[in-house]
Amino acid sequence: MIRGLHGLFYSSEPEAAREFLRDKLKLPHTDVGEGWLIFDLPEADLGVHPVDPGRAGGSHDVSFYCDDIHGTVADLKSRGVPFEADVADHGYGYVTYFTIPGGLRVQLYEPKYQKRAASSPRKAVKTAAKAAKKTVKKAATKVAAKAKQAVAKAKTPARNATARRGTAAKKRR
Fold this sequence. Notes:
Strand content: 15-25%
Largest sheet: 4 strands, mixed
Structural class: alpha+beta
Number of strands: 6
Oligomer: single chain
Number of helices: 3
C-alpha cells in the first residue's frame, strides 16, 4: 500500500540545495551519511494537470503549501529566501515562486480547498504505545491488588492459629 511520496530535486548544486532546504526552509531531515539529507515532510498530496500549449508532457513540478502564505513568505524572506513575484490568486490558491540553488523553481501556495486531515503513522504509533502503556499499568495495578489480598488472606489463618495457640495456652494454666 502506498503511504507517501518521495520526491527528488536534481540540482547542479546539490550541497547548496540541501543546505537551503535545511537552513532556509527549516525542513526536518535525516542525515544518511556523506552529505546526503533526506527531508521528512509531514504531508503530501499529488495533482495531475493538463499540459500547457508548447510544453512537453512528462515534466514535473514541486510545490510546497502552507496555511498562511503571507506570513510564510515574510518568514522565509527574513531567512534570505528570494521570491520571484508577489503572491497572486490562481483560483485554487494563493501562489508565489522561489528558487532553490541549482536553478530549482518551486511554487509556494496556500490552498483555498479544504485538505483532509493527514493520518500520521508516527502519531498512530504513539497513540497505540500510550494505550498499551495504560493497559499494562492497569493490569499491573490489578495484579498488585490481588497479590496484596492473597498476602492478607495468607496472614489471616496464621494470625488465627497464633490466636488459637494463645487461647489454648491460657486454658491450660
